[in-house]
Amino acid sequence: MSLALDGVVKSYPDFELGPIDLDVGSEVLAVLGPSGCGKTTLLSVVAGIVTPDAGRVSLDGADLTGRPPEERGTVLVFQDGALFPHLTARENVAYAADSPDRVADLAETLEIEDVLDQPADTLSGGERQRVALARSLAADPDVLLCDEPLANLDAPIKRRLRRELRPLLSSLSIPVLYVTHDQREATALGDRLAVVENGRIHQTDAPEAVFARPATPFVASFTGSTNLFRAEVVDTGAKAVLDWGGRTIEVPSTDHAVGTTVDFCIRPEYVGIADGAGAENVVAGTVTNHVFEGDQHLLTVAPDGGTTDVVRVRLSPPTYDGLDRSTGDQVRLSLPPEAIHVIGERSV
């Protein structure tokens, strides 16, 4: 199965989605973006709930654009599950299934056998979402659309369901559009990511590529590359050289000409501690903030020299304990050239 969106546009008085061009094969495409960026509108267009003002939605070449929702072969899993509260879990799943055996198979796969005879309104959040997914899969959809199905769940349940959903969704062998604002969820579940802002897709690629090589400053900041700086290209070659606020920074070779203003980024977890000879792109500065996040420490460092930029560093507890630095202390950082990504030219 292959889902295609070609030039899809939907306009409202204060918002416009598109133009959207997407090709989704038998894979999970995680649509990642902030609240209000158009993710749910995108799903609604594919599902036939919303009619686009322009463009085409097709499945295996067949135009779906004018078809009603019930004739599209698409199923939408809502954030709250949208179960029938007066029915049991079994009856909810059976509503879309063609046989009791299908209900039993899905219940086993999604581990909801113990709650099948409970009324839907007595289920926990995790149970409710698994029953909702079972009901959706019981319809044997050609396309599965998921609208932040884990958003309202507690963190431990969300982590567990992320682990369980990945193999299940991958096994369906149909296009799956999975909408979320949570980057951990997107990378855990998506074969590819489509990063959306203000109704436009900034980048579509494998999760590793999106995180390592963001296409725009928005993608960099939204996916956690909070070290995002403006600089000028001053030399090119096997390694390019940037002037960053009077500092010389070596980066991988770039196609941008000398004199070009660019953005460059480095993820906080790739910033190192310059504790000996051989460190590259050394930046000395003062620790201005420290936050312990449970499994890691986040330091904010103000570089010496008067720049208004700050560098954020993410350290494991053993590394932080060995550093023996706290707010107000001096520290020397290293920005490894191979971990730096030059995003591109930027208008000044």
Automatic annotation (TrEMBL):
One Pfam family here: ABC_tran
GO CC annotations, alphabetized: ATP-binding cassette (ABC) transporter complex
SMART domains xrefs: AAA
Enzyme Commission number(s) of this protein: 7.3.2.6
UniProt topology in membrane: Peripheral membrane protein
Domain of life: Archaea
Keywords, in A-Z order: ATP-binding, Molybdenum, Nucleotide-binding, Transport
Name the record gives this protein: Molybdate/tungstate import ATP-binding protein WtpC
Organism, as annotated: Halococcus hamelinensis 100A6
